[in-house]
Design goal:
Number of strands: 24
Low-confidence stretches: none
Shape: globular
Mean pLDDT: 88
Largest sheet: 18 strands, parallel
Length: 455
């Protein structure tokens, strides 16, 4: 960082300022600069005197809209008190819209994070604050729409009142639309028991909830009324503790660290679900009786399911509105149930990726000859050939064949696929040779395709 940047008195924008250890590289250099837009302060652990942070005079920079504050990991004993005083001194102006805090080592956040200073803030991102035990009262902020909390090892609740007095007739997070919780090892709940009474409510406008590796989190049924929740990402244990999911249209459930299956009752409550993504599931994760209720589902993604020994019965039969099916990194899956796929009259897109034991294209796909528009074959090392019946796919528009080295030729009837607009072949050595422009044996069969990408 150039020294004495404070002498550039006409400077209006400084998106990145790195605090140095030498004279002329401290926060006091910002004192007389009328900065606006975005300001990122890096290496705040180098600030040894909180008065230098005060001299930065952030509160008077009324054109500042986005503030990012970074502390780096330090070796040796860390001065928690100095960190707390530095953050207190970096109070922003009341026009601030977004705030990011990363690596702060203090135990407590400053008062200004809960008062009128933050009245216009719409986005807050707090991460890697390992000493912090309590969050500021962010639920009071009237315009906060997006909140992301990550790696806060000691935080137990999102909403709590340390005064011991229950919150009465107060909406908490009245405008929040998206809540992202990641790696909060000690998080026990979104709100502390007895912290809200009377007509008080929380998260009335929440539309998206993402929960990743919050293994202590329990959300008691009926504790929250998430009437507007549309997108939910969590593990199966978190999902089991949620209720009233009728509004959810997009659900992502992982089974990485849990053996809890999705209950029939939960699946039956998802009456408006359009998109379902499942990670690390096994044969028992989705009961067939529950799958019957997913009449509105249009997209199903089954990803990284190493425990899936074969395609479970009943997962597809009842998904009559399904338009998109993706199966990624499920090494034991080699076939799809023909008696179920035939009911998928509207399936337009199939993506088969990383199915390492699949030798032949599933025969069940023949039932999609009049509906399928996109077929993606990627990283199928044992796939030996493409069947002639693929030429019957008169609606197919996109075909990709990537990392399928044993596929050596295209179906002879590909010339009859008149709707095919896009063909991409890559990392298939012999097939690429046969499709070489003008010279390859298969060139005459594919030259009618408008967009060709070979090799």
């Amino acid at each position: 960082m150039p020294t004495k940047i404070g002498e550039l008195t006409c400077l209006k924008t400084l998106s990145r300022f790195i605090v140095g250890c030498d004279r002329g590289n401290g926060l006091e250099e910002l004192q007389c600069l009328n900065l606006g837009g975005e300001l990122g302060l890096h290496h705040l652990e180098r600030v040894t005197n909180p008065m230098d942070a005060k001299k930065a005079n952030l509160a008077e920079k009324t054109n500042l809209r986005h503030l990012k504050l970074y502390w780096q990991l330090r070796s040796g004993k860390e001065n928690i008190d100095i960190d707390e005083k530095v953050l207190e001194a970096l109070e922003p102006p009341p026009n601030l819209e977004t705030l990011l805090i990363e690596g702060f080592r203090g135990r407590c956040f400053p008062v200004w994070m809960s008062n009128s200073t933050m009245k216009k803030v719409v986005r807050i991102d707090i991460s890697s604050c390992e000493s912090c035990m309590h969050l500021p009262q962010l639920g009071k902020l009237p315009h906060l729409k997006y909140l992301r909390l990550k790696n806060l090892a000691r935080v137990e609740y999102i909403i709590e009142d340390q005064s011991g007095n229950p919150l009465r007739s107060v909406q908490q997070f009245p405008s929040l639309e998206s809540l992202d919780l990641q790696y909060l090892d000690n998080l026990k709940g979104l709100l502390k028991e007895q912290v809200m009474t009377g007509s008080a409510e929380a998260f009335p406008n929440l539309e998206q909830l993402d929960i990743l590796d919050c293994n202590s989190l329990i959300i008691p049924p009926l504790s929250l009324s998430l009437k507007k929740l549309k997108k939910l990402e969590c593990d199966s244990l978190n999902l089991a503790s949620l209720s009233k999911l009728e509004a959810v249209t997009d659900l992502n459930v992982n089974f990485w660290n849990t053996f809890t299956c999705i209950t029939v009752e939960t699946l039956q409550s998802l009456t408006n679900l359009k998109k379902l993504e499942i990670l690390a599931a096994d044969d028992m994760s989705l009961p067939e009786e529950g799958m019957r209720a997913l009449k509105s589902l249009t997209s199903l993604y089954i990803n990284y399911c190493e425990k899936l020994t074969c395609w479970p019965q009943g997962w597809l039969r009842h998904l009559t509105a399904l338009e998109e099916l993706e199966i990624i990194e499920c090494p034991e899956v080699v076939e799809l149930p023909e008696e179920e796929v035939k009911y998928l009259k509207f399936l337009k897109k199939v993506n088969l990726h990383g199915l390492r034991k699949m030798e032949y294209l599933p025969k069940a796909l023949q039932h999609l000859s009049s509906s399928l528009q996109h077929l993606y074959l990627n990283d199928l090392p044992q796939l030996s050939s493409l069947p002639d019946w693929l030429g019957d796919f008169t609606s197919l528009e996109v075909l990709t064949i990537i990392e399928c080295p044993k596929v050596t030729s295209l179906p002879t009837r590909i010339r009859g696929m008149t709707n095919l607009q896009y063909l991409w072949i890559w990392k298939c050595p012999e097939l690429e040779r046969r499709c070489e422009k003008e010279n390859g044996e298969d060139w005459q069969n594919i030259q009618h395709i408008p967009r060709l990408f070979i090799g």
